[in-house]
């Protein structure tokens, strides 16, 4: 992306868009919440694409508000938000978002701005944003077009959804189960980069809409299968039980067919780096970490790996025996376990009770000059980021990914 993307916008238009940044910061959530309400009223078929749980939690509207704000703030130089554009484009590719969806989004975003801002959304403001949205949409469409083409050109690559057969189902813990997938047509399928994810298309009896959910691939890319390890989301407070995770746990068995999209995502392991690899996970955040761990053992057998996992206790700690065995078989692996609330049966199977904190983490790591990857619940990730910054880890060496819509790493 270059500044050519915005040269078609007159300076007056760009100035008007940038002038809306303060009000977007103040009322962005209101605008995007109203946007989704209007869009789903007029295009209920789009509920087949958007995660309705994230809608109820407000995560999706916050993520959209942040994207709109960033685009407005950088309208002169959209290349400044290229990493954010690419991250969103990966998710769009995984969900099979098409160019024809963008005019629908633009129309309802402008309607929502007018509804929420009232007189502040003058004709000049709306006209400026209509032009700016067209430019921003074109950037996303072109980025995604290139990604679709790249995926299609891979050996065994495909666009849209492809049927895969569940060839094995393994219970990993009280709440996490792994599903091993192979193409139902028996044809080749592409390997992926450690850390990437797929989208599962769930068509559940009694549900009015299709449900799409993204799950990280949890094994090394050359295993001959795709493996996803899914946490069953039970009802919690006002949030109902996870529709898709419970469907997978209770109704999908060995031999079942699941339509999935091709692997996507930019949270990927740098396999050119030879410095120590630090993998830190919380709960089901272990899924991309397991892929990175297994891939590094095979591709960089001499590289030092520190794998640190935090869980409530051993009952919900998935793949603990796998990691323990890998650590005993490979001298370069240093595995540590932290339990917040260990049970008596967990005695001698964890290294720390409580949480991963600065003092303990720095006592087990050899250096901050390493490549750090972490994934887990929002609060866990924010705590890890603060800890790594306190440890003076370079920003370029800190890598993370939120499950679901992007969120702020600082709080």
Automatic annotation (TrEMBL):
The record marks 36 as: Involved in heme-bound ligand stabilization and O-O bond activation. Its EC number is 1.14.12.17. One of its GO terms (biological process) is cellular response to nitrosative stress. Its cofactor is FAD; heme b. Residues 159-270 form the FAD-binding FR-type domain. NADP(+) binds at residues 283-288. It catalyses: 2 nitric oxide + NADPH + 2 O2 = 2 nitrate + NADP(+) + H(+); 2 nitric oxide + NADH + 2 O2 = 2 nitrate + NAD(+) + H(+). Residues 8-145 form the Globin domain. It holds the Pfam family Globin. PROSITE patterns: FAD_FR, GLOBIN. One of its GO terms (molecular function) is nitric oxide dioxygenase NAD(P)H activity. Heme b binds at residue 92. Binds 1 FAD per subunit. Binds 1 heme b (iron(II)-protoporphyrin IX) group per subunit. Transmembrane segments: none annotated. FAD binds at residues 197, 213-216, 402-405. Keywords: Detoxification, FAD, Flavoprotein, Heme, Iron, Metal-binding, NAD, NADP, Oxidoreductase, Oxygen transport, Transport. The record marks 91, 401 as: Influences the redox potential of the prosthetic heme and FAD groups. Belongs to the globin family. Two-domain flavohemoproteins subfamily. Is involved in NO detoxification in an aerobic process, termed nitric oxide dioxygenase (NOD) reaction that utilizes O(2) and NAD(P)H to convert NO to nitrate, which protects the bacterium from various noxious nitrogen compounds. Therefore, plays a central role in the inducible response to nitrosative stress. HAMAP family: Hmp. Consists of two distinct domains; an N-terminal heme-containing oxygen-binding domain and a C-terminal reductase domain with binding sites for FAD and NAD(P)H. This is Flavohemoprotein. The gene is hmp.
């Amino acid at each position: 992306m270059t500044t050519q993307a915005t040269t078609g916008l007159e300076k007056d238009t760009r100035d008007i868009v940038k002038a809306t940044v303060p009000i977007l910061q103040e009322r962005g959530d209101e605008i995007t919440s109203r946007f989704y309400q209007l869009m789903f009223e007029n295009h209920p078929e789009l509920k087949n694409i958007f995660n309705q749980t994230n809608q109820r939690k407000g995560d999706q509207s916050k993520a959209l508000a942040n994207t709109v704000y960033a685009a407005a703030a950088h309208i002169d130089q959209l290349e400044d938000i290229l990493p954010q554009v690419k991250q969103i484009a990966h998710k769009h590719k995984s969900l099979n978002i098409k160019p024809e969806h963008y005019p629908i989004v633009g129309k309802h975003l402008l309607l929502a701005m007018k509804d929420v801002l009232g007189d502040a959304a003058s004709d000049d403001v709306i006209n400026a944003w209509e032009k700016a949205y067209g430019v921003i949409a074109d950037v996303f469409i072109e980025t995604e077009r290139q990604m679709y083409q790249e995926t299609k050109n891979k050996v065994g690559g495909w666009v849209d959804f492809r049927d895969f057969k569940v060839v094995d189902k393994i219970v990993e813990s009280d709440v996490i189960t792994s599903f091993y997938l192979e193409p139902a047509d028996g044809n080749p399928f592409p390997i992926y980069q450690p850390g990437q994810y797929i989208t599962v298309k769930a068509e559940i009896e009694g549900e009015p809409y299709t449900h799409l959910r993204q799950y990280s691939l949890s094994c090394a890319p050359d295993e001959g299968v795709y493996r996803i390890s899914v946490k069953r989301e039970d009802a919690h407070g006002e949030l109902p039980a996870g529709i898709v995770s419970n469907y997978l746990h209770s109704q999908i068995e060995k031999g079942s067919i699941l339509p999935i999209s091709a692997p996507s995502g930019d949270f990927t392991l740098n396999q050119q780096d030879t410095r120590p690899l630090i993998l830190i996970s919380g709960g089901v955040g272990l899924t991309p970490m397991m892929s990175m761990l297994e891939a590094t053992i095979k591709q960089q057998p001499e590289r030092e790996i520190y794998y640190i996992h935090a869980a409530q206790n051993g009952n919900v700690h998935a793949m603990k025996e796998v990691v323990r065995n890998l650590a005993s078989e490979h001298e370069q692996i240093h595995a540590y376990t932290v339990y917040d609330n260990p049970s008596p049966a967990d005695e001698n199977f964890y290294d720390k009770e409580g949480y991963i904190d600065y003092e303990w983490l720095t006592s087990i790591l050899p250096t901050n000059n390493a490549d750090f990857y972490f994934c887990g619940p929002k609060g866990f990730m924010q705590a890890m980021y603060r800890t790594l910054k306190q440890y003076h880890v370079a920003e370029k060496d800190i890598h993370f990914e939120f499950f679901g819509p992007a969120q702020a790493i600082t709080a």
